[in-house]
Amino acid sequence: MLWSDPENEPPKELRDMQDMLRRLGVLVALAMLLAMIVIGIG
Fold first, then answer.
1. Rounded to two decimals, what is the model's pTM?
2. How far is CA 17 from each of CA 1, 3, 8, 13, 31, rounded to the nearest angstrom?
3. Cα(32)–Cα(41) distance, integer angstroms
4. CA-CA distance, 30 to 25, in Å (whole number)?
5. Which of 4, 7, 33, 40 counts the most CB atoms within 10 A of its CB?
6. 10: confidence class by pLDDT, cuts 50, 70, 90
7. Greatest mean pLDDT range, 2-6, 9-13, 32-36
8. Where are the alpha helices (H) located in 1-42, listed in sequence order?
């Protein structure tokens, strides 16, 4: 964190990382759901 960063707004890298983590979480949830369905059928 740089001292010059505004306190109220996170830096762009942090927001991008949060977006990526959110998408990754959705993908992981979908993958787990799909795996459960495949295991349940198989």
1. 0.60
2. 15, 20, 17, 6, 20
3. 14
4. 9
5. 33
6. confident
7. 32-36
8. 12-41
